[in-house]
Amino acid sequence: LEGGGLVSKAKIERVFLDLLIEKGALRLAPSPDELFTLKSGRRSPYFINLGALTDGESLAKLKWAFASYIALLLEEGAITDFDYVFGPSYKGISLAALTCEGLKELYGLDKRYMYDRKEEKPYGDVEADRVIVGASYFKPGERILVVDDTITTGKTKIDTLEKLKLLGEHEVVGIVIAVDRQERMGDAEHIDERGAVEYIEEELGLKVYSIQNIKTIYQLIRDSLDEEMRRIWIEYYRRYGTITLE
Predict the structure, then answer these.
(1) What are the tens digits of pLDDT across the range 158-181?
(2) 10 Å Cβ neighbour count for 75?
């Protein structure tokens, strides 16, 4: 996976999906009795876990995928140039660091990264730095790109945007995620009519870009699922999804 030139979205999608499958970052429930419980309380037939990508080969491909996709978005004018990459803790931290390294190494783009603390630091001379690591370098008016692993209900992204207000004047140029689960907002019992991505784009005015999405993934793994698990996937997305599976 060489850098130095722009890569097609199709190639980025293909390499990234192969990575998720080969390294076990895409986990499929083996039976209806062994579904995954998400942070939202929803019982899902699959789980995206970028935390499984801990070996050097995986990290190199992850770095390549995020950096290549962001470079493509910049070239196409989908996002404006930015100064910082922000990764929500915990999984977004390594993504932000890898993205910065990849942008510099592969495309000569030098950016800083920031991430938030789960617990506020009880000391420090800059208020924002107590919550956001790297805030001490931030200058008013600078631009930020947010990166993260998945988007389900959108709550983490909304919380992130609230924390970024501590920086003062700033602009978020967009959000780049690894996988869009294509679900509606809410939790297991309370389901919003709008999808998480739709809400962020319409209400917060921010564009969300995903390297992969679950509809594409499902179409590729569908034939490997038995009839009962396929029914559970379809029912899950009938209840929680912004898409329809067949």
Answers:
(1) 888 889 998 999 999 999 999 999
(2) 10
Q: Which residues of the chain have pLDDT under 50?
A: none
Closest CA to 82 of 17, 9, 143, 15: 143
- Separation between Cα atoms, residue 237 and residue 184, nearest integer Å: 9
Q: Is 23 helix (H, G, I), strand (E, B) or coil?
A: coil
CA distances to 29, 48, 73, 140 from 206, rounded to whole Å, are 33, 23, 14, 19
Residue 240 contacts residue 191 (beta carbons within 8 Å): yes
DSSP 38: P
DSSP 225-240: S-HHHHHHHHHHHHHH
Distance (Å, whole) CA 163 – CA 70: 23
Residue type, 207: K
Per-residue DSSP letter, 89: T
DSSP lists the bridge partners of residue 195 as: 184
φ, ψ at 244 (rounded to 5°):
-115, 130
| Integer Cα distance of 156 and 166 in angstroms | 16
198: amino acid identity, one letter: E
pTM of the shown model: 0.90
Q: Can you name the CATH fold of 9-240?
A: Rossmann fold (3.40.50)
What residue ranges do the domains of the chain occupy?
9-240
For the CA atoms of 217, 218, 223, 225, what is the dihedral angle to 10 degrees? 110
- CA contacts within 13 A on the Cβ side of 93: 11
